[in-house]
Protein backbone atom coordinates (compact mmCIF):
# COMPACT_ATOMS: atom_id res chain seq x y z
CA UNK A 1 0.00 0.00 0.00
CA UNK A 2 1.27 3.49 -0.78
CA UNK A 3 3.13 4.93 2.23
CA UNK A 4 1.19 8.22 2.00
CA UNK A 5 -2.14 6.40 2.22
CA UNK A 6 -0.91 4.38 5.23
CA UNK A 7 0.17 7.61 7.01
CA UNK A 8 -3.20 9.20 6.33
CA UNK A 9 -5.06 6.20 7.76
CA UNK A 10 -2.91 6.28 10.93
CA UNK A 11 -3.63 9.99 11.46
CA UNK A 12 -7.36 9.40 10.98
CA UNK A 13 -7.34 6.57 13.55
CA UNK A 14 -5.55 8.79 16.10
CA UNK A 15 -8.07 11.64 15.62
CA UNK A 16 -11.01 9.26 16.03
CA UNK A 17 -9.47 7.85 19.23
CA UNK A 18 -8.94 11.28 20.74
CA UNK A 19 -12.51 12.30 19.94
CA UNK A 20 -13.82 9.19 21.65
CA UNK A 21 -11.82 9.96 24.80
CA UNK A 22 -13.17 13.52 24.95
CA UNK A 23 -16.74 12.34 24.44
CA UNK A 24 -16.34 9.93 27.37
CA UNK A 25 -15.37 12.81 29.67
CA UNK A 26 -11.64 13.14 29.28
CA UNK A 27 -10.44 16.80 29.48
CA UNK A 28 -13.71 17.95 31.13
CA UNK A 29 -13.94 19.44 34.60
CA UNK A 30 -15.79 17.26 37.07
CA UNK A 31 -19.45 18.26 37.26
CA UNK A 32 -21.03 18.54 40.72
CA UNK A 33 -24.73 18.90 41.45
CA UNK A 34 -25.89 22.52 41.97
CA UNK A 35 -26.65 23.20 45.63
CA UNK A 36 -30.28 23.87 46.50
CA UNK A 37 -30.82 27.63 46.83
CA UNK A 38 -32.02 29.01 50.15
CA UNK A 39 -33.66 32.38 50.63
CA UNK A 40 -30.36 33.63 52.00
CA UNK A 41 -28.49 32.37 48.92
CA UNK A 42 -31.01 33.99 46.59
CA UNK A 43 -30.76 37.29 48.48
CA UNK A 44 -26.96 37.18 48.31
CA UNK A 45 -27.06 36.46 44.59
CA UNK A 46 -29.49 39.34 44.04
CA UNK A 47 -27.24 41.68 46.01
CA UNK A 48 -24.20 40.52 43.99
CA UNK A 49 -26.08 41.05 40.73
CA UNK A 50 -27.14 44.53 41.88
CA UNK A 51 -23.56 45.44 42.74
CA UNK A 52 -22.32 44.08 39.42
CA UNK A 53 -24.92 46.12 37.54
CA UNK A 54 -24.01 49.19 39.59
CA UNK A 55 -20.31 48.85 38.76
CA UNK A 56 -20.70 48.33 35.02
CA UNK A 57 -18.15 50.18 32.98
CA UNK A 58 -15.89 50.77 35.99
CA UNK A 59 -18.36 53.22 37.55
CA UNK A 60 -20.46 52.88 40.67
CA UNK A 61 -23.94 53.45 39.28
CA UNK A 62 -26.49 54.61 41.86
CA UNK A 63 -30.12 54.26 40.82
CA UNK A 64 -31.69 56.91 43.05
CA UNK A 65 -35.46 56.64 43.41
CA UNK A 66 -37.34 59.89 43.96
CA UNK A 67 -40.98 60.96 43.73
CA UNK A 68 -42.92 61.93 40.59
CA UNK A 69 -41.10 63.65 37.74
CA UNK A 70 -42.95 66.90 38.57
CA UNK A 71 -41.90 66.84 42.23
CA UNK A 72 -39.36 68.97 44.06
CA UNK A 73 -37.50 65.81 45.06
CA UNK A 74 -36.99 64.63 41.49
CA UNK A 75 -35.87 68.06 40.35
CA UNK A 76 -33.40 68.33 43.24
CA UNK A 77 -31.96 64.88 42.54
CA UNK A 78 -31.49 65.69 38.84
CA UNK A 79 -29.50 68.77 39.89
CA UNK A 80 -27.48 66.85 42.47
CA UNK A 81 -26.74 64.07 39.98
CA UNK A 82 -25.46 66.53 37.38
CA UNK A 83 -23.03 68.15 39.82
CA UNK A 84 -21.78 64.90 41.40
CA UNK A 85 -21.42 63.08 38.08
CA UNK A 86 -19.31 65.94 36.71
CA UNK A 87 -16.99 65.93 39.73
CA UNK A 88 -16.65 62.19 40.49
CA UNK A 89 -15.63 60.28 37.35
CA UNK A 90 -16.16 56.87 38.97
CA UNK A 91 -19.72 57.59 40.15
CA UNK A 92 -22.89 57.84 38.10
CA UNK A 93 -26.13 58.83 39.85
CA UNK A 94 -29.24 57.97 37.83
CA UNK A 95 -32.41 59.77 39.09
CA UNK A 96 -35.51 57.59 38.82
CA UNK A 97 -39.05 58.96 39.13
CA UNK A 98 -41.55 56.76 40.97
CA UNK A 99 -45.20 57.04 42.00
CA UNK A 100 -44.12 58.77 45.22
CA UNK A 101 -41.44 58.90 47.89
CA UNK A 102 -42.84 55.91 49.79
CA UNK A 103 -43.02 53.89 46.57
CA UNK A 104 -39.34 54.64 46.02
CA UNK A 105 -38.49 53.62 49.57
CA UNK A 106 -40.28 50.31 49.18
CA UNK A 107 -38.54 49.76 45.85
CA UNK A 108 -35.19 50.28 47.57
CA UNK A 109 -36.17 47.90 50.36
CA UNK A 110 -36.92 45.22 47.74
CA UNK A 111 -33.61 45.77 45.93
CA UNK A 112 -35.05 47.57 42.90
CA UNK A 113 -33.11 50.81 43.53
CA UNK A 114 -29.80 51.68 45.19
CA UNK A 115 -31.02 54.72 47.15
CA UNK A 116 -34.23 56.68 47.78
CA UNK A 117 -35.77 60.06 48.54
CA UNK A 118 -37.37 59.95 51.99
CA UNK A 119 -38.78 62.06 54.80
CA UNK A 120 -38.18 61.64 58.51
CA UNK A 121 -41.82 60.66 59.04
CA UNK A 122 -41.68 57.82 56.49
CA UNK A 123 -38.33 56.52 57.78
CA UNK A 124 -39.90 56.19 61.23
CA UNK A 125 -42.83 54.27 59.74
CA UNK A 126 -40.41 52.01 57.85
CA UNK A 127 -38.46 51.13 60.99
CA UNK A 128 -41.57 50.86 63.17
CA UNK A 129 -43.52 48.88 60.53
CA UNK A 130 -46.64 50.97 61.00
CA UNK A 131 -48.70 53.39 58.90
CA UNK A 132 -47.85 53.02 55.23
CA UNK A 133 -45.31 50.28 56.05
CA UNK A 134 -47.63 48.12 58.12
CA UNK A 135 -47.33 44.53 56.89
CA UNK A 136 -44.42 45.41 54.61
CA UNK A 137 -41.32 43.21 55.00
CA UNK A 138 -38.18 45.03 53.77
CA UNK A 139 -35.19 43.05 52.54
CA UNK A 140 -32.92 45.94 53.53
CA UNK A 141 -33.26 49.29 55.29
CA UNK A 142 -32.44 52.88 54.48
CA UNK A 143 -30.01 54.72 56.74
CA UNK A 144 -29.81 58.46 57.30
CA UNK A 145 -27.46 59.78 54.61
CA UNK A 146 -28.18 63.40 53.64
CA UNK A 147 -30.86 65.93 54.65
CA UNK A 148 -31.67 68.65 52.13
CA UNK A 149 -34.76 70.72 53.04
CA UNK A 150 -37.90 71.00 55.12
CA UNK A 151 -41.58 71.10 54.27
CA UNK A 152 -43.96 72.89 56.63
CA UNK A 153 -47.63 71.88 56.46
CA UNK A 154 -50.57 74.01 57.54
CA UNK A 155 -54.22 74.73 56.74
CA UNK A 156 -55.95 77.26 54.48
CA UNK A 157 -59.60 78.26 54.03
CA UNK A 158 -61.43 80.44 51.49
CA UNK A 159 -60.66 84.07 52.31
CA UNK A 160 -64.33 84.97 52.80
CA UNK A 161 -64.56 82.31 55.53
CA UNK A 162 -61.42 83.33 57.40
CA UNK A 163 -63.33 84.92 60.28
CA UNK A 164 -64.89 81.57 61.20
CA UNK A 165 -61.60 79.83 61.97
CA UNK A 166 -59.01 81.13 64.41
CA UNK A 167 -57.35 77.92 65.61
CA UNK A 168 -56.97 74.35 64.39
CA UNK A 169 -59.48 73.04 66.92
CA UNK A 170 -62.10 75.12 65.10
CA UNK A 171 -62.01 72.43 62.41
CA UNK A 172 -63.43 69.82 64.78
CA UNK A 173 -66.32 68.04 63.08
CA UNK A 174 -65.58 69.63 59.68
CA UNK A 175 -64.82 68.18 56.25
CA UNK A 176 -61.19 68.76 55.28
CA UNK A 177 -58.82 67.83 52.51
CA UNK A 178 -55.83 66.98 54.69
CA UNK A 179 -53.71 66.29 51.55
CA UNK A 180 -53.44 62.90 49.80
CA UNK A 181 -53.51 59.92 52.14
CA UNK A 182 -50.37 58.34 50.70
CA UNK A 183 -48.27 61.52 50.92
CA UNK A 184 -45.83 62.40 53.70
CA UNK A 185 -47.28 65.92 53.97
CA UNK A 186 -50.76 64.51 54.53
CA UNK A 187 -49.54 62.00 57.09
CA UNK A 188 -47.74 64.80 58.96
CA UNK A 189 -50.74 67.16 59.00
CA UNK A 190 -53.08 64.44 60.25
CA UNK A 191 -50.57 63.58 62.97
CA UNK A 192 -50.76 67.19 64.17
CA UNK A 193 -54.57 67.27 64.14
CA UNK A 194 -54.74 63.92 65.91
CA UNK A 195 -52.38 65.21 68.61
CA UNK A 196 -54.90 67.97 69.30
CA UNK A 197 -57.82 65.54 69.38
CA UNK A 198 -59.49 67.21 66.39
CA UNK A 199 -62.22 64.98 64.95
CA UNK A 200 -62.52 65.78 61.25
CA UNK A 201 -63.72 64.05 58.10
CA UNK A 202 -61.00 63.70 55.50
CA UNK A 203 -62.22 64.05 51.92
CA UNK A 204 -59.82 62.54 49.37
CA UNK A 205 -59.53 64.72 46.26
CA UNK A 206 -57.55 65.03 43.08
CA UNK A 207 -55.30 68.06 43.42
CA UNK A 208 -56.93 69.87 40.52
CA UNK A 209 -60.34 69.54 42.24
CA UNK A 210 -59.41 71.31 45.50
CA UNK A 211 -60.41 74.82 44.41
CA UNK A 212 -63.83 73.65 43.20
CA UNK A 213 -64.42 71.66 46.40
CA UNK A 214 -63.67 74.77 48.50
CA UNK A 215 -65.95 76.96 46.39
CA UNK A 216 -68.84 74.46 46.51
CA UNK A 217 -68.44 73.87 50.24
CA UNK A 218 -67.63 70.16 49.84
CA UNK A 219 -64.72 70.90 52.17
CA UNK A 220 -64.19 73.87 54.48
CA UNK A 221 -60.39 73.81 54.37
CA UNK A 222 -57.38 72.29 52.65
CA UNK A 223 -53.94 71.31 53.77
CA UNK A 224 -51.24 73.49 52.29
CA UNK A 225 -47.45 73.46 52.57
CA UNK A 226 -44.31 75.45 51.84
CA UNK A 227 -40.90 74.02 50.94
CA UNK A 228 -37.37 75.02 51.90
CA UNK A 229 -38.17 77.13 54.94
CA UNK A 230 -41.00 79.00 53.20
CA UNK A 231 -39.22 79.54 49.89
CA UNK A 232 -41.63 77.88 47.47
CA UNK A 233 -44.99 76.28 46.77
CA UNK A 234 -45.72 73.10 44.86
CA UNK A 235 -47.05 73.42 41.32
CA UNK A 236 -50.59 72.41 42.26
CA UNK A 237 -50.62 75.03 45.03
CA UNK A 238 -49.60 77.76 42.61
CA UNK A 239 -52.55 76.78 40.45
CA UNK A 240 -54.82 76.76 43.51
CA UNK A 241 -53.76 80.35 44.25
CA UNK A 242 -54.90 81.35 40.77
CA UNK A 243 -58.26 79.63 41.20
CA UNK A 244 -59.11 80.71 44.76
CA UNK A 245 -58.36 83.42 47.31
CA UNK A 246 -57.01 81.72 50.42
CA UNK A 247 -56.42 82.60 54.04
CA UNK A 248 -53.97 80.62 56.16
CA UNK A 249 -55.17 79.48 59.59
CA UNK A 250 -52.25 79.02 61.96
CA UNK A 251 -52.51 76.88 65.10
CA UNK A 252 -52.99 78.89 68.29
CA UNK A 253 -50.09 79.15 70.78
CA UNK A 254 -51.52 76.56 73.18
CA UNK A 255 -52.02 74.16 70.26
CA UNK A 256 -48.42 74.64 69.17
CA UNK A 257 -47.20 73.76 72.65
CA UNK A 258 -49.47 70.73 72.88
CA UNK A 259 -48.34 69.33 69.54
CA UNK A 260 -44.69 69.85 70.44
CA UNK A 261 -45.22 68.13 73.79
CA UNK A 262 -46.53 65.10 71.89
CA UNK A 263 -43.52 64.92 69.58
CA UNK A 264 -44.93 66.81 66.58
CA UNK A 265 -42.29 69.26 65.24
CA UNK A 266 -43.71 72.74 64.56
CA UNK A 267 -42.01 75.59 62.72
CA UNK A 268 -42.80 79.16 61.68
CA UNK A 269 -41.56 80.49 58.33
CA UNK A 270 -42.15 83.55 56.09
CA UNK A 271 -45.16 83.70 53.74
CA UNK A 272 -43.06 84.95 50.83
CA UNK A 273 -43.84 81.79 48.83
CA UNK A 274 -47.42 82.96 48.33
CA UNK A 275 -48.14 85.34 45.47
CA UNK A 276 -51.20 86.81 47.24
CA UNK A 277 -51.99 88.05 50.73
CA UNK A 278 -53.01 85.04 52.83
CA UNK A 279 -54.09 86.96 55.92
CA UNK A 280 -51.07 86.18 58.13
CA UNK A 281 -47.57 87.58 58.41
CA UNK A 282 -45.99 84.17 59.09
CA UNK A 283 -46.85 80.57 58.28
CA UNK A 284 -46.89 78.03 61.13
CA UNK A 285 -47.23 74.32 60.50
CA UNK A 286 -46.06 70.78 61.11
CA UNK A 287 -42.47 70.34 59.93
CA UNK A 288 -40.94 67.35 58.18
CA UNK A 289 -37.42 66.90 56.82
CA UNK A 290 -36.64 65.49 53.39
CA UNK A 291 -33.40 63.99 52.20
CA UNK A 292 -31.64 61.50 49.98
CA UNK A 293 -30.75 58.25 51.69
CA UNK A 294 -29.21 54.85 51.01
CA UNK A 295 -28.17 51.71 52.87
CA UNK A 296 -25.11 49.55 53.41
CA UNK A 297 -25.43 48.35 49.81
CA UNK A 298 -23.31 51.46 49.13
CA UNK A 299 -19.99 51.26 50.95
CA UNK A 300 -18.68 53.78 53.48
CA UNK A 301 -16.08 55.31 51.18
CA UNK A 302 -18.51 55.92 48.30
CA UNK A 303 -21.03 57.68 50.55
CA UNK A 304 -18.29 59.65 52.29
CA UNK A 305 -16.95 60.92 48.95
CA UNK A 306 -20.45 61.76 47.77
CA UNK A 307 -21.07 63.88 50.86
CA UNK A 308 -17.71 65.63 50.59
CA UNK A 309 -18.48 66.50 46.98
CA UNK A 310 -21.97 67.79 47.79
CA UNK A 311 -20.66 69.88 50.70
CA UNK A 312 -17.90 71.38 48.56
CA UNK A 313 -20.37 72.24 45.78
CA UNK A 314 -23.36 73.37 47.84
CA UNK A 315 -23.20 76.94 46.47
CA UNK A 316 -23.38 75.63 42.93
CA UNK A 317 -26.27 73.33 43.83
CA UNK A 318 -28.22 76.23 45.39
CA UNK A 319 -27.54 78.35 42.31
CA UNK A 320 -28.94 75.64 40.04
CA UNK A 321 -31.92 74.76 42.27
CA UNK A 322 -33.29 76.97 45.10
CA UNK A 323 -34.33 73.78 46.93
CA UNK A 324 -30.72 73.60 48.17
CA UNK A 325 -30.77 77.18 49.52
CA UNK A 326 -32.00 76.14 52.95
CA UNK A 327 -29.18 73.65 53.57
CA UNK A 328 -26.69 76.04 51.95
CA UNK A 329 -27.11 78.52 54.81
CA UNK A 330 -25.72 76.09 57.39
CA UNK A 331 -25.02 72.69 55.87
CA UNK A 332 -23.65 71.01 58.98
CA UNK A 333 -26.11 72.68 61.35
CA UNK A 334 -29.01 71.53 59.19
CA UNK A 335 -27.75 67.92 59.25
CA UNK A 336 -27.57 68.01 63.04
CA UNK A 337 -31.04 69.54 63.33
CA UNK A 338 -32.60 66.88 61.10
CA UNK A 339 -30.76 63.97 62.72
CA UNK A 340 -31.99 65.03 66.17
CA UNK A 341 -35.58 64.74 64.94
CA UNK A 342 -34.93 61.16 63.78
CA UNK A 343 -32.11 59.99 66.03
CA UNK A 344 -33.71 56.57 66.45
CA UNK A 345 -32.88 55.94 62.77
CA UNK A 346 -29.26 54.76 62.29
CA UNK A 347 -26.81 56.78 60.20
CA UNK A 348 -24.88 55.43 57.23
CA UNK A 349 -21.22 54.77 58.18
CA UNK A 350 -20.08 57.14 55.42
CA UNK A 351 -22.36 59.87 56.77
CA UNK A 352 -21.01 59.30 60.28
CA UNK A 353 -17.43 59.56 59.02
CA UNK A 354 -18.20 62.80 57.17
CA UNK A 355 -19.92 64.37 60.20
CA UNK A 356 -17.20 63.38 62.66
CA UNK A 357 -14.54 64.78 60.34
CA UNK A 358 -16.40 68.10 60.41
CA UNK A 359 -16.86 68.18 64.19
CA UNK A 360 -20.56 67.26 64.23
CA UNK A 361 -21.37 64.24 66.35
CA UNK A 362 -23.41 63.04 69.32
CA UNK A 363 -22.95 59.82 71.25
CA UNK A 364 -26.74 59.44 71.13
CA UNK A 365 -26.62 58.83 67.39
CA UNK A 366 -26.42 55.27 66.09
CA UNK A 367 -24.40 54.04 63.12
CA UNK A 368 -26.02 51.39 60.94
CA UNK A 369 -24.44 48.33 59.42
Short description:
Helix content is 41%, strand content 17%.
Write the layout of secondary structure elements.
Elements: H1 3-23, H2 39-54, E1 60-65, H3 72-87, E2 91-96, H4 101-109, E3 115-119, H5 120-128, E4 147-158, E5 175-177, H6 184-195, E6 201-202, H7 210-216, E7 221-227, H8 235-243, E8 246-249, H9 253-261, E9 266-270, E10 282-294, H10 300-312, H11 314-320, H12 325-329, H13 331-341, H14 349-357
Parallel strand pairs: 1-2, 1-3, 5-6, 5-7
Antiparallel strand pairs: 3-10, 4-7, 4-8, 4-10, 9-10
Strand content: 15-25%
In the CATH hierarchy, the third-tier topology of the largest domain is known as D-Maltodextrin-Binding Protein, domain 2
Terminus-to-terminus distance: 80 Å
Give a count of the beta strands, DSSP E runs of length 2 or more: 10
CATH architecture of the largest domain: 3-Layer(aba) Sandwich
Find the CATH superfamily of the largest domain.
Periplasmic binding protein-like II
Structure report:
By secondary structure, the chain is of the alpha/beta class. The protein folds into 2 domains: 53-145 and 295-357, 3-Layer(aba) Sandwich (D-Maltodextrin-Binding Protein, domain 2), CATH 3.40.190.10; 150-288, Periplasmic binding protein-like II (D-Maltodextrin-Binding Protein, domain 2, 3-Layer(aba) Sandwich). The protein is 41% helix and 17% strand. It contains 14 helices and 10 strands. It has helices spanning 3-23, 39-54, 72-87, 101-109, 120-128, 184-195, 210-216, 235-243, 253-261, 300-312, 314-320, 325-329, 331-341, 349-357, and strands at residues 60-65, 91-96, 115-119, 147-158, 175-177, 201-202, 221-227, 246-249, 266-270, 282-294. Strands 1, 2, 3, 4, 5, 6, 7, 8, 9 and 10 form a 10-stranded mixed β-sheet that branches. Strand 1 (60-65), helix 3 (72-87) and strand 2 (91-96) form a beta-alpha-beta unit. Helix 10 (300-312) crosses helix 14 (349-357). The radius of gyration is 29 Å and the shape is globular. The model is unreliable at 1-56 (pLDDT under 50).
Amino acid sequence: MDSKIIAGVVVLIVVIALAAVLMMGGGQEEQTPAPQETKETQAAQQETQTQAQGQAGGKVQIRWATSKSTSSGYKAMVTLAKVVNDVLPDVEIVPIATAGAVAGMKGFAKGEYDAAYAADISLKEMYGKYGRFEGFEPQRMLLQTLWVYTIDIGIAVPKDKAGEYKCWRDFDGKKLFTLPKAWDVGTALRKGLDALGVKYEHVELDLDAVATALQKGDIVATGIYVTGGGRSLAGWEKQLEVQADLAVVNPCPDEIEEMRSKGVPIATVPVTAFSKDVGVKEFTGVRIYYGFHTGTNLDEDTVYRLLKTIYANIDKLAELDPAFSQVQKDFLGFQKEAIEVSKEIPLHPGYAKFLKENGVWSDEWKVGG
